[in-house]
Amino acid sequence: MALSMRLSRGGSKKRPYYRIVIADVRSPRDGRFIEKIGTYNPLLAKDDEKRVEIDTDRAKHWLSVGAQPTDRVARFLDAAGVKERAARNNPNKAEPGEKAKERAEERAEKAKAAEEAAAEAKAAPAEEPAAEEAAAEESTEG
After folding, report:
1. What is the rounded CA–CA span in Å between residue 113 and residue 5?
2. Calpha distance 14→83 (Å, rounded)
C-alpha cells in the first residue's frame, strides 16, 4: 500500500484549516486517513509557533515505513528538522513565454525605428535652414 503524508482540508469557506495526515494515495483528499500527525493553520502569522504543529516522532516513523510527503508537508518537515528537502531549481520559471518574447521584440524594433526617425529629424532641420537661407538670398537677388 502506497502511503503519503499530506494535508487534509477542514474549516469553513475562506477559513482553511488543515490536518497533516498519513493516508493511502488512492483515498480522497479529505477522506479516510490512517493517522493524524499534525495541524497547519495558514491564517496564523508566519512566525506563530502554532501555525504548524507536527508530531516529529510519528513523522519519522512513517517516513521510515515509506510514506512520501507532498511538497508542502516536505517543507514543514524540513523546517521541523525531520527530513531535509532538496532545493528545487527551475531556471526557466522566470523566463517569459513565446508571445511575451515576440511582443518585446516588436517593441524593440519600434523603439529602434523611432530613434532612427528622431536622428533623421535632428539632421534634417540642420540642413533646412541653410537651404532656406539660400532660397531667401535668391529671392532677394531676383
Report:
1. 58
2. 31
Task: State which residues form the domain around 113.
Answer: 95-137
How many C-beta neighbours within 10 Å does residue 54 have? Answer: 19
User: pTM of this prediction?
Assistant: 0.61
Contact predicate 37/20, CB 8 Å: yes
What is the H or E stretch that residue 124 is in? helix 98-141
DSSP type of residue 87: P
76 in the same domain as 17? yes
pLDDT band at 132 (very low <50, low <70, confident <90, very high): low
Q: Give backbone dihedrals phi and psi of 10, rounded to 5 degrees, phi first.
A: -135, -170
> Which residues are 21's β-sheet partners?
6, 36
